[in-house]
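User: Could you go from structure to sequence for me? I need the amino acid at each position, not a summary. Structure tokens:
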């Protein structure tokens, strides 16, 4: 496994970016003879990603770097992990996995075994085909204040319908404005695990039924986007569509799927977003979630639950729900 990027701190010190390998992390500023000497924070690293990326790619592939991390790096047991990115903008693509859309359709009305289930399944498959052929991603914004660390606890409070959604997080490394699909992936800096926690009973407003979804109340509260544990540079992910996502609650698998199941792939999402907004370095795109929401399982998160979200090569984040 190649080194990955973490955002860590020790008592009394501000968080700093480091290369992690085999349980030890070495600050990027260790390499003083490179442009990384200026990368004292994740924000600075991502702000100047085109300058830093070639250096990082060389270091991540060099045996000398791994030896340096082992010799000079801090053991992670003495460090605190922080969210690996502090995005200026967060975008979430809704309803972007075929299996999740089919699952929701089958769960509706008379249920998966009801006489109308085949009709709903056929209609959903037709809708998916039409959307892929003629449509575009459905994207909402999520406040940057909702980003939390990969080991943070979340206070449930009076939230009785808090649901999970594991997603691939895409971190932008170069400004993107009205780019085409061919250029889209060159704007990706890194990937990470995100859990787009959602308060289901706040998605729709009972007092304003004709105004549609309320993403502020349902998705933007502080702590509703656990992120990390680390960033995997784009050059380490040969085919994002081959990635497998899985989420467990108290050790039981609730979600499992592959990115190949997306209606609109990562390049398509970046291209679409860039037509309407300027993507900036450090921005985060949450790319959709596979089947297996709490809504399907008939249960939501409650105090005492432990949620583990994992993606191939991107580590596992652990969310503890507390009263």
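Assistant: Here is the amino acid at each position, in order:
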């Amino acid at each position: 496994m190649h080194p990955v990027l973490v955002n860590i701190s020790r008592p009394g010190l501000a968080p700093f970016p480091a290369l992690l390998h085999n349980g030890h992390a070495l600050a990027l500023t260790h390499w003083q003879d490179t442009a990384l000497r200026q990368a004292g924070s994740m924000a600075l690293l991502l702000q100047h990603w085109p300058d830093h990326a070639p250096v990082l790619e060389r270091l991540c592939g060099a045996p000398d770097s791994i030896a340096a991390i082992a010799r000079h790096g801090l053991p992670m047991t003495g460090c605190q992990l922080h969210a690996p990115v502090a995005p200026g903008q967060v975008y979430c693509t809704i309803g972007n996995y075929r299996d999740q859309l089919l699952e929701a359709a089958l769960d509706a009305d008379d249920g998966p075994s009801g006489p109308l289930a085949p009709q709903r399944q056929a209609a959903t498959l037709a809708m998916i085909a039409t959307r892929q052929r003629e449509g575009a991603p459905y994207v909402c914004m999520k406040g940057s204040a909702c980003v939390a660390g990969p080991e943070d606890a979340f206070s449930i409070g009076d939230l009785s319908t808090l649901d999970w959604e594991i997603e691939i997080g895409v971190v932008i490394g170069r400004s993107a404005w009205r780019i085409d699909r061919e250029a889209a992936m060159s704007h990706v800096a890194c990937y990470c695990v995100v859990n787009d926690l959602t308060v289901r009973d706040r998605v729709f407003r009972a007092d304003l039924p004709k105004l549609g979804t309320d993403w502020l109340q349902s998705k933007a509260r502080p702590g509703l986007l656990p992120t990390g544990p680390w960033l995997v540079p784009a050059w380490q992910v040969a085919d994002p569509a081959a990635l497998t996502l899985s989420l467990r609650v108290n050790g039981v698998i609730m979600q499992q799927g592959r990115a190949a199941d997306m209606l609109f792939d990562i390049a398509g999402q970046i291209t679409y977003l860039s037509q309407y907004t300027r993507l900036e370095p450090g921005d985060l795109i949450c790319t959709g979630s596979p089947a297996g929401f709490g809504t399907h399982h008939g249960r939501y998160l409650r105090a005492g639950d432990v949620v583990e979200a994992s993606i191939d090569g991107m580590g596992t984040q652990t969310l503890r729900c507390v009263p």
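One structural detail worth keeping in mind: The longest strand covers residues 188-195.
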